[in-house]
């Protein structure tokens, strides 16, 4: 039991030291941090993309007819899950939700 407490304390102290190091680097040299952010962004943007991305996009909209049939928004999770299952079964490779 004593060893676990010492190990947890060591991890906590190391986390504090790492946070202090990152904070001191950020506060002492924001231009360096900004430079590293820009370089990281450039590196991410230069990584190769998918060889042949699909250009077909389908938007599934919940309209007034759906609301009249299934009830007002917000819908329960099981109904949204069923909707996503049907979209996936129709062949969707990726699904994004915009919920307002």
Task: Write structural notes for this entry.
With 100 residues, the protein is mostly helical. The chain is 64% helix and 0% strand. It contains four helices and no strands. It has helices at residues 2-28, 30-46, 64-70, 77-89. The longest helix has 27 residues, at 2-28. The radius of gyration is 24 Å and the shape is extended. The chain starts with a helix and ends in an 11-residue tail after the last helix.
Can you summarize this structure?
By secondary structure, the protein is mainly α. The chain has helices at residues 2-28, 30-46, 64-70, 77-89.
Largest β sheet strand count, sense and barrel closure: none
Judged by helices, strands and strand pairing, the structural class is: mainly alpha
**C-alpha-based Rg, rounded:** 24 Å
Residue stretches low in confidence (pLDDT < 50, at least 5 long) are: none
Helix content: 55-70%
**If helices are DSSP runs of H or I spanning 4 or more residues, what is the number of helices?**
4
Count of individual beta strands? 0
End-to-end Cα distance, whole Å, is 49 Å
How would you sum up the global shape?
Answer: extended
Report the average pLDDT across residues: 84
Output the helix-strand order: HHHH
**Proportion of beta-strand residues:** under 5%
